[in-house]
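Long-time lurker. I teach an intro course on protein structure, and each term I like to show students one example going from raw sequence to a predicted 3D structure in token notation. This year I'd like something fresh instead of my usual example. Would anyone be willing to generate the tokens for the chain below so I can use it in lecture? Attribution to the forum is fine with me.
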Amino acid sequence: MIQGIPLQYVLVVSIIMFFIGVCGFIIRRNLITILMSIELILNSVNINFLAFNRYLFPDQLQGHFFALIIVAIAAAEASVAIALIINIYRRISNIEVENISEMKY
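-- Reply from a regular --
Happy to contribute to a lecture. Here you go:
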């Protein structure tokens, strides 16, 4: 139990977040919403790491460290992706996935 919340409830929330992120990644065509969907997927993985760490090894912090690493990677990924999206918007004036045929320079 995670401070009164059973593990199953936390996993259900994480699964719902993960599949909303996957559906958003597949269905949406806007680059910003695709980036937000990737962030949602990474946050659901963080919830899993923290829940299983608390459930299996309550006195250790490996899950917390993995979650911290994922947050750092997500921040770096978001900054690079937003820089690319801004550059694409300046060149094409549109950030829809269908309108981007090639990445030049």
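Some talking points for your students: The mean pLDDT is 88. The first helix runs from residue 7 to 27.
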